[in-house]
Specification:
The complex is a heterodimer of chains A (628) and B (236). Chain A is mainly α and 628 residues long. Chain A has two domains: 2-282, ABC transporter involved in vitamin B12 uptake, BtuC, CATH 1.10.3470; 323-540, no CATH class. Chain A contains 24 helices and four strands. In chain A, the strands form two sheets. A two-stranded antiparallel sheet of chain A has the order 1-2. In chain A, helix 12 crosses helix 21. The longest helix of chain A has 32 residues, at 2-33. Chain A is globular and about 70 Å long. The N and C termini of chain A lie far apart (67 Å). The relative contact order of chain A is 0.12. Chain B has helices at residues 43-51, 73-79, 96-102, 116-122, 124-127, 139-151, 169-184, 196-202, 220-225, 227-233, and strands at residues 5-14, 17-27, 32-36, 58-63, 66-67, 81-84, 157-161, 188-193, 205-210, 213-219. In chain B, the strands form two sheets. Chain B has a six-stranded mixed sheet with strand order 6-7-8-3-9-10, sandwiched between helices. Chain B has a four-stranded antiparallel sheet with strand order 2-1-4-5, covered by helices on one side. In chain B, a hairpin with a 2-residue loop joins strand 4 (58-63) and strand 5 (66-67). Chain B starts with a strand and ends with a helix. Classes of the chains: A mainly alpha (628), B alpha/beta (236).
Chain lengths: 628, 236
């Protein structure tokens, strides 16, 4: 028994090393540039692919060929980082942080297709490392020497990083910039150069992490997203910006996985979730993290006020609704199908907007609640034999309850921490659906989720969807302009002052989180009966990003934005998928371009034009930095 | 000889709030000018706009005859303008020596050259706490450290934003001595200040700003003699 424990501990330590390399790079980049680099997992993947190619070319049996290939792969990944920074990130350092996250997600999509184009869809098996092909007998078990090597890499890199940051001028500048990058610039340091070098360095660490995995596991196109969600967990648990914290957390998560697989093979991720929950309850900013203080950049420009719809907007909404209601009279069935889906997505996007816009809480895992709604409906049908109506009623409650539980943790954080945590929760929900084959059918999903007889026809189900979604969206709108909505916005704009006037900020945000989850669940339930089946992919990261894109495309500071965004985005991506096999690349590129060109979203850009047109007098209330 | 720093019709905004509305004044080499005015008048914003930290929306800033508006803060700093923010902004996790090293620039022929050792003569307190973290120092010590840090860039012109604010009287006196010492080194100093007494001790001239507009410029003596201006723009 004790042998087994020691053995699994070693396994955990070995897997912690690559995780640490990626997470520390992520953490360092965030510290200086304040950008959470979603594409960091992709750089890790590229490092592995590049190493596979280079090692194959240089000769995998030759020590120089292997290690040279691994190191060169890391350096090349660093250079790719430079290209990304110079071409994209440099242009958006001033943009709101969500747009930055989104742009890096665009890079994720692009790199996915680049890897697909260059290396194909097949998994690549790497060679074993020269000099580390054998194993040693440890505690009565065979233990590969390469694993021992990896165990040593973690602390070694930690030491190198420490020396670099404490003993070099570059390190001093990085630490200073982590604290106050504006001041560093005012003291004559070329920030641009510093940012580029930091991004290159962080990318190189990710590339090295990927390259070192070569002898250990197959290189696949899925490495990016699975790594990035784990790295987020590690960074949140360790404390954003702390390299030592990242190491501790990586070890913790690594060991947890090693034991989890042994003891509870089906709920390893739930275990990770529980540990993360405990850590965050005890230390909200992670093991080694500190509460953000001092000169942090605000979330972009001051939020314009959301005003209740004026007559014109109301009229436009009404006309839109009437057109949608009349559509079945003229539209053929296949158009109705598309419309049904769009209407569902509009509610999904509106629910996310509710927590993101007025709530100021950006969720990168909103699909969890959409998916839970869908599963709620499907499980009710499958296990309770429920017909459609009660199943649809039940569905949002599963999502809402999850929102209450997950939300409790999330609202204790803010900004990028919150975004990362929501992503991690979504990943857990996805993995639970994926792993619990007995309950959910795993990857095969749940089939045969069909509407009741009266709603089977396309127009009938369309009307049902339209009625439920329109009512929900109107209810969300009314909430935004209710006292609760005003409280929510007060909590977003200035939590301290909001508390000072007696608002329970955490509770308000918690409720908003749960409401958003509940509404996403409504959309999910409708979607389940619409498709007739439910799969774990409903909860996967790409679906969460879909929702984000809809909201941001429309513009987060407008109420009608998400609806317009949903229609624009869903329409666009469907067309793209038909046009090219490399639709991800095109989509990613469009996202990046959109962020660079329209940092306020489509409706926001329209409003800005209108403002310029009218030369409106300054509104009575604008948020201005209090200092002169 | 032309002025060292010339600011003409400078406009700046925070969001939609029009903070600087055509600020115009000039500074001569080697003088100490006090930019005075009430809270929110635009003193700090003027300094930030000179430094490029708040992008000017209109008007020009020229330093030694060269346009600097629209340039990046690090370029402006490298031309020889040192900025000391009012809220200090020491790097709290970095030691005194590290704080100084962040700002280190090569020596230049037209400005005094500062090394940590020379700075420790000017600020003996700092010399005794070289390895102390910036965050573990008192407010007065932090204020001295920010000035010392800025001097490491070997500036010709120093912008001191509210140097006396929030300091104990004895430290304020020390601060006045420091400013005069900098002047004696040949540096040109722009300070923003609300305290007439302090400004009177260190400055040669004063410019008064109110609601983003310069209302008065003149020597310190002229200001002291002008009861109307003082009561209109300075008294609380």
């Amino acid at each position: 028994m004790i042998d087994l424990i020691l053995n699994q501990t070693l396994n955990g330590l070995a897997s912690a090393s690559s995780l640490f390399l990626v997470a520390s790079g992520l953490s360092i980049i965030f510290g200086v540039t304040r950008i959470v680099n979603f594409a960091h997992g992709s750089l890790y993947m590229l490092g592995a692919y590049l190493a596979w190619t280079l090692v194959g070319r240089f000769g995998p049996t030759d020590a120089l060929g292997f290690w040279g290939g691994v190191l060169l792969a890391a350096v090349l990944t660093g250079l790719i980082g430079v290209v990304i920074e110079v071409l994209i990130l440099r242009r958006i350092y001033q943009a709101p942080e969500l747009f930055q996250l989104l742009a890096t997600f665009g890079v994720v999509l692009m790199l996915q297709d680049v890897a697909l184009g260059l290396w194909g869809a097949e998994d690549k098996i790497g060679p074993r490392a020269p000099g580390f092909k054998s194993f040693v007998i440890l505690f009565g078990n065979r233990f590969p020497t390469y694993e021992l090597f990896l165990i040593a890499v973690g602390p070694l890199v930690l030491l190198i990083l420490w020396l670099l940051f404490q003993k070099t001028r570059w390190g001093t500048l990085v630490r200073a910039a982590t604290q106050d990058r504006e001041m560093v610039g005012a003291l004559g340091v070329n920030q641009r150069l510093l940012f580029t070098s930091v991004f290159a360095f962080g990318s190189m660490l990710a590339g090295l992490g990927g390259a070192l995995q070569l002898p250990r596991e197959a290189v696949t196109l899925h490495m990016d997203l699975s790594m990035i969600s784990e790295a987020f967990v590690v960074v949140v648990v360790g404390g954003l910006g702390s390299v030592t914290g990242a190491y501790l957390a990586a070890v913790l998560i690594g060991i947890l996985h090693a034991f989890g697989i042994l003891i509870f093979p089906k709920i390893t991720l739930v275990l990770v979730f529980l540990v993360m929950a405990v850590v965050l309850v005890v230390k909200p900013y992670g093991l080694m993290g500190k509460a953000p203080v001092g000169h942090q950049r605000a979330h972009g420009p001051a939020e314009p006020l959301l005003l209740p719809a004026d007559g014109l907007t109301k009229l436009a909404g009404l006309i839109g609704l009437i057109i949608l209601a009349l559509a079945p009279l003229v539209a053929p069935d296949h158009i109705l199908l598309t419309l049904t889906e769009l209407v569902i997505f509009a509610l999904f996007a509106a629910s996310l907007h509710f927590m993101m816009g007025p709530g100021g809480m950006a969720s990168f895992g909103h699909a969890a609640y959409f998916g839970l709604g869908a599963y709620g409906a499907a499980l009710a049908v499958k296990w309770l034999g429920a017909p459609m109506e009660p199943a649809l009623l039940l569905a949002p409650f599963l999502a809402g309850i999850a929102g209450v539980v997950f939300g409790w943790f999330c609202v204790r954080l803010s900004g990028v921490y919150l975004a990362m945590l929501t992503l991690a929760f979504a990943q857990i929900a996805w993995a639970t659906a994926f792993q619990s084959v007995d309950l959910t059918g795993g990857d095969n999903g749940i089939l045969g989720v069909w509407p009741s007889a009266w709603a089977v026809s396309k127009p009938a189900y369309y009307y049902l969807t339209l009625a439920v979604c329109a009512a929900s969206i109107v209810a969300l709108r009314l909430t935004i302009f209710s006292p609760f909505g005003y409280g929510l916005r007060a909590a977003r704009d200035n939590p301290l002052r909001a508390e000072a006037i007696g608002l329970d900020v955490v509770r308000i945000q918690w409720v908003a989180f749960a409401v958003a989850a509940f509404c996403a669940g409504i959309a999910g339930g409708l979607f389940a009966f619409f498709k007739g089946s439910v799969f774990p992919t409903y909860m996967a990261i790409p679906r969460s990003v879909d929702a984000l894109l809809m909201v941001l495309l429309g513009g987060v500071q407008t109420v009608s934005g998400p609806i317009i965004g949903a229609f624009a985005y869903a329409g666009l991506s469907e067309q793209l998928m038909k046009l090219t096999m490399y639709w991800r690349f095109v989509l990613g590129l469009s996202i990046v371009l959109l962020v660079v060109l329209f940092p306020r979203g489509l409706v926001g850009a329209g409003l800005a034009l209108r403002e310029r047109w009218r030369k409106e007098p300054e509104p009575a209330a604008t948020l201005v930095e209090a200092r002169p | 000889m032309s002025a060292m720093l010339e600011i003409a019709a400078l406009d700046a905004y925070y969001g939609r709030a029009h903070i600087l509305q055509g600020v115009t004044f000039a500074m001569n080499r080697g003088e100490v000018l006090a930019l005075m005015g009430r809270n929110g008048a635009g003193k700090s914003t003027t300094m930030k706009a000179i430094m490029g930290l708040v992008p000017p929306a209109g008007g020009t800033v020229s330093f030694e005859g060269q346009r600097i508006d629209g340039r990046e803060p690090f370029e402006i700093a490298r031309l020889g303008i040192g900025y000391v923010p009012e809220d200090r902004r020491v790097f709290s996790e970095l030691s005194v020596m590290e704080n100084l090293s962040v700002a280190q620039r090569p020596a230049r022929s037209d400005a005094p050259h500062w090394t940590p050792e020379r700075l420790f003569q000017l600020f003996p307190n700092l010399g005794r706490m070289r390895d102390r973290a910036g965050g573990a120092m008192s407010g007065g010590e932090q204020q001295m450290l920010t000035i010392a840090r800025t001097l490491m860039g070997n500036p010709r012109l120093v912008l001191l934003d509210e140097p006396s604010e929030g300091l104990a009287p004895v430290i304020v006196e020390e601060m006045a001595k420091t400013i005069l010492a900098l002047k004696a080194e040949g540096l040109t100093v722009l300070i923003s200040e609300q305290n007439l007494h302090f400004a009177g001790n260190v400055a040669d001239r004063a410019a008064i700003i109110e609601k983003g507009v310069i209302r008065f410029t003149g020597t310190m003596d002229e200001l002291k003699g002008n009861e109307a201006v003082r009561s209109q723009y300075l008294s609380v």
